[in-house]
Fold this protein.
Amino acid sequence: MTDVFAPLGVRVDAGPVSLVPITDDVLPALVDLALAGIHDAGFMPFAMPWTDAPEEELRAAYPKYHWGNRARWSADAWTLEFAVEFNGNLVGVQGISTSNYLVTRTGETGSWLGQEHHGRGIGTRMRQAMCAFMFDYAGAAEITSTAFIDNPNSLAVSRKVGYRADGEVRVKRRDEMAISKRLVLTPDAFVRGEPITVTGAEAFRAYIGLEN
């Protein structure tokens, strides 16, 4: 598959954290991890409340989401997502989405972490690994993120990594209004974590149209 779809050949290692391709054999374990819990039931950290779905619906929809990302991949718009391992154990997902990347050189990170793995600094490490990959290997000029203002854990990760606030917007969350904060990270402000080792970067760069 990596010969015809280079994103599945990218792997990023940063100390105990590894960002690994989400191949089909990884999807069932990710579904089980999500169903075990990502956040408290009374709180919704996602603009799209996908974790509200009943178990059987989520089991069917989650693989389709990743298959859809592959099918919709184009030079104009793509989403790169990794399964996150910590000391070899599956703990969550880290991704980035972009459009017109060759022109804008920017993308927005998104992630989730199994609830049992919260509070261990993993969220910061996996974001640092993704940002290091994008800046050092994919030529990003900036990276953005968003978080609801009542999500202090996500906002704390952004601060630790070096993002700066870039405005707020009113959005619908479930059936209520919520304030989403936009954040921006540039290479000069980036607070790095463990040095990264990358596999598959050259093929990925060629696949998205970057000159080697």
Notes: The longest helix spans residues 55-72.
